[in-house]
Amino acid sequence: MIFWNRRRAGGWPADTMRRMSLRLKIHLIVGVLVALCLVAVMALQVKSARDAIREEIEAANRVAAQLLQRTLWLQAARGTPAMIGYLQGVGRVRANDITLLDGKGELVYQSPPSPYKSGRDAPDWFVDFMAPPLEPQKMDFPDGTLVVRADPSRAALDAWDQFAVLGLAALGVLAVLNLVVFWVVGRTVEPFGQIVAALNRIEAGQLDVTLPRLPGTEAAAIGAAFNRMVVGVSERIEAERRAAQAEHELSDRRDLARWIDRHLEQERRLIARELHDELGQSVTGMRSLALSVAQRVAIADPEAARAAQVIAEESSRLYDAMHGLIPRLAPLVLDVFGLADALRDLVERTRVSQPQASVELHIDLGDVQLGSEATLALYRAAQEGLTNALRHGQARQLNVSLHAESEGAELQVDDDGQGLAPDWREKARQDGGHYGLRWLAERVEALGGVLRIDNRSPRGVALRVWLPFTVAERREARIGRRRERSAMAHGGRVAACRVGDNDRRSPAAGCVRLCQRPGPRGPGRWPDAGRPADPLLAAPFLNMIRVMLVDDHALVRMGFRMLLANADIEVVAEAETGEEACQAVPKARPDVVVMDLSMPGMGGLEAVRRLLAQDPKLRLLVLSAHEDTAHPQRVLRAGALGYLAKRSAPEALIAAVTAVARGERYVDAQTAQRLAVAQIDGETSPADMLSEREFSVFIQLARGMTVAQIAETLKLSPSTVGTHLYHIKQKLNASNQSEITLVALRWGLIQA
Fold first, then answer.
1. 19 vs 12, 16, 303, 501, CA distance in Å?
2. How is domain 543-681 classified at the CATH fold level?
3. Contact assessment for residue 582 and residue 610, using Cβ atoms and an 8 Å cutoff
């Protein structure tokens, strides 16, 4: 029991058995079984010999007792000497010991010992075990007693000798059998050594090992299964290697595709900016020159005037086509204002270009800021969805929605168009159609997202793009919401009046009057607040208006100069940059400064601030190709009296210069409409939150200047600049200078 408990508990017997080799275990088991068989045979032999000896002793004892009893009285009558002589003549009776005692109980005669195997005896324990004890038989006669005792010593010795021979034979047989078993078992388990060696080689990474045909049915089956396993493992490892290689190649191709996409977008942005900054300005100059020529030769040469008018009209169409192409090439508004504003701009342009369609937009990004690649991919998805729905599906009702989930952002574009053919994917793979959708799918897949395009019931298409957030995009970006709350606390709202006579989509031509609530800058927040009125400017001009043109394109300046000259407006000076304008204004003393917003160097906004710092009564009219609300808001808040889009009619330029010269505010009709809508929607710029000095520091920080550089530029101490920086971060909820730059870019306060 103790042994069994130890074995179950994993004691030394179990450990010893586990450490034994299979060959030794089989050998021990066979040896134990053979030994048990031999012991069983010996036990049977012992029992048989014991029964034979018992029977022999009992029979011999009875025969001797009966024989002596018959002759005892005859010999006893003749006397004791005759009795002794008789017994001596009888000699020894097998398996019996005869003793003659006299009347006094003394030994008179004892039969002689048996000469059979004399000198040797079996062990007493063996004799006692083999021969059962028998009571001696006594026969009394007048002179004494005759005692007959059974003597099994010789029979036991015979049995002992037989068992000795049998034991030696059994040991010999056991030894021979063990040798045979050891050899047979060795031959039987010999293939297992080959299998173990092969397994060790596989563990070492050598997969080219195979086993030969092993002897024995079982060993041959194991060897065949082992070879099949090796082939399977080799194929699986090779498949995994190829899969890993394919995944690595796919990852490389995705990286390459993303690299190509980035560079393509960079090239598109470069082309778009060249179209916007160079070709657009040139087209504007050509149109101005053509209109100026048409006005000058209208009477002298009507044919030339009509040709110039045609050139002006074609320039206008080229300008409109170019502005329609720029968002398709690269949405510049996406870089400056972000995805939400870019989608609003896209939907608004779609409404204008497709008045028969109703386009709705819903945006809920929460506190998430998307990365540049994800932002561009979602914008392109919305662009592709709208284009396909309107161009191919003839949709009349479209719904664009963008919302953030727990792990990513999802864009949906649903329409009620004709839908897609059931096999459009297969046809697109075969004939290369639907290039835009296939390109979009590759871009989304490269970003780890999912693109789904399904037909809606009963009609239409549902396009869904889901992109996962990166670690950087998961950070909390509550700048917009806190900016709004801060703006509400500090005031500073833009109010627009006299937007239009009918609705906000059809504003009347003219200007808007911008008012404000009390804010951190005090009652004089608008530059014209508190400015003394000039009675001479309220009436028509008695003298020619003096104008200074500031634009980095000479062709544009030439066209504007000729247009203004036709209206008896004198151009007294020109400048290419804001720095040149700041130097030229004190000398030229113009009535109105007509300035481009996008210029190299300090830019139009900073030039407005510096010019007004030099002469607070200076009238400024800013021209820009940007068609949004942030740019006119920042210009008007900086102190300019007028804002005019460059795509406006030439007559608007003359009207704007005249109004600004009289001290009136002027904003073109379309810009006025956008400002009114922004006022209704409650949009707030960072300029509404910051004081004048904080705003100056904010602009310098956004341009990448250090605290020391800002202190030197603004003539402040570094500690004061640091205090302003702290307040700026608190008000804008920005944690570093990069986020400050991002805020400035989103609101168009600096150029990207």
1. 10, 5, 115, 103
2. Rossmann fold (3.40.50)
3. yes
List % helix, strand, coil for the chain (3-state, nearest 5).
60, 15, 30
Tokens 């607070």 identify what position? 616
Cβ burial 635-658 (10 Å sphere, 16+ → b, else e): bbbbbbbbbbbbbbebebbbbbbb
What is the rounded CA–CA span in Å between residue 46 and residue 224? 52
The tokens describing 518, both together, are 């009390």
Token pair of 628, please? 């949004």
**Per-residue pLDDT tens over the stretch 428-444:** 666 656 667 777 787 78
| Residue 554: partners with Cβ closer than 8 Å, 6 or more residues away | 285, 576
Domain 684-751 coded CATH 3.30.450.200:
no
Degrees, nearest 5: CA angle 278-283-285: 95
- Measured at the CA of 702, the angle between CA 701 and CA 704, to 5 degrees, comes to 65
State the Cα–Cα distance between residues 429 and 438, nearest whole angstrom: 9
Residue the block writes with tokens 């007792």: 65
Contacts of 508 (CB under 8 A, 6+ apart): 498, 499, 500, 501, 669
Phi, psi for residue 95 in degrees, rounded to 5: 65, 20
Report domain 337-424+434-481's class.
alpha beta
Is pLDDT larger for residue 126 or for residue 79?
126
Q: Give which of 551, 499, 550 is closest to 678, Cα–Cα.
A: 499
Q: Where are the domains of the chain?
A: 29-175, 209-329, 337-424+434-481, 543-681, 684-751
Q: Please write the tens of the pLDDT for every residue from 264-304.
A: 767 776 776 666 666 766 777 777 777 777 777 777 777 77
* pTM of structure: 0.40
Distance, CA of 218 to CA of 224 (rounded, Å): 10
Kindly write down the DSSP assignment for every residue of 367-429, as one continuous string: T----HHHHHHHHHHHHHHHHHHHHTS--SEEEEEEEE-SSEEEEEEEE-S----TTHHHHHH
- CB contact set of 232 (below 8 Å; sequence gap of 6+): none
Mean pLDDT of 396-420: 87
* 618/611 Cα distance (integer angstroms): 8
| Whole-angstrom distance, CA of residue 693 vs CA of residue 721 | 9
Q: Among residues 563, 593, 681, 627, which one has the least CA distance to residue 284?
A: 563
Taking residue 287's Cβ as centre, other Cβ atoms within 10 Å add up to 25
- Rounded Cα distance between 545 and 661, Å, is 7
Nearest residue to 171 (alpha-carbon basis) of 320, 364, 39, 345: 39
Kindly report whether the peptide bond that precedes residue 535 is cis, defined as omega within 30 degrees of 0.
no
Residue 34 CA to residue 177 CA, distance in Å, equals 8
Residue 335: count of CB within 10 angstroms of its CB: 19
Token duo for residue 708 = 């020391």
Q: Are 430 and 453 in contact (CB under 8 A)?
A: no
